[in-house]
Amino acid sequence: MELWYTEKQTEEFGITAKIKETLVREQTEFQDLAIIDTTEWGRMLVLDGMVMTTVRDEFVYHEMVAHPALFTHPNPKHVLVVGGGDGGVIREVLKHPKVEKAVLVEIDGKVIEYSKKYLPEIAGELDNPRVQVIVNDGYMHIHEHKNTYDVIMVDSTEPVGPAVELFSRGFYQGIYEALKEDGIFVAQTDNPWFKADLIRTVNRDVREIFPIVRVYGANIPTYPSGLWTFTLGSKTYDPLQVDETGIPEIETKYYTPRLHKAAFALPKFVEDLIK
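Structure for Polyamine aminopropyltransferase, as requested:
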């Protein structure tokens, strides 16, 4: 007998993976949480029926959330990650020696707990002394910490359940105010095949707040459509003006200095979404 997990990405389309074992399944205070072991992608974190990360391809997402912004800001001492309880973005942030303190604010403590237990290669830096882990509402944290952070990264689920507010204009305005005068923020903004309206709306809202806005992409095979976008808003620094020859080599599997600018070269149909 074979067991398969299917994520229904739209009403008419989904992806499926063969399962070896279900490691944990729990209805937390905020969402349905599962960690399953698959034959193709290894251990997989699933929240409310959506694949959040797998041990095989997680490096793409986590590197591309962290490194474009951190190599654009010249002195990112204080970094905030909203969401991201699996710890992958934090792991990448700590590869930057200029970062003195990284704060993780995750609303669901169970994500942190089970990631540490079942996804140690992703969550392994959450106990690092440079990291402060806060189990709380990221939306509220932003609004309570004005002029605090050099870089803010929003590692959220799709805009359902507890993540809905993390795609609102009020949240982006709060991020602007929580950043220092030369701050940068980045957020995952889903895929252009199924969520074109979301990308268009987020881009419009962020442009009304930040003077510099750039969208970039990456290939993440276990995410809907495989083509994923990120939106970066900056008060001062433009990622396209970074001298790639000055970007130091760090241990990565996807991001490279040459990819820094190349990731911002979008397919025509994605460019048309954000004009």
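Residues 3-53 form a domain with the Spermidine Synthase; Chain: A, domain 2 fold (CATH 2.30.140.10).
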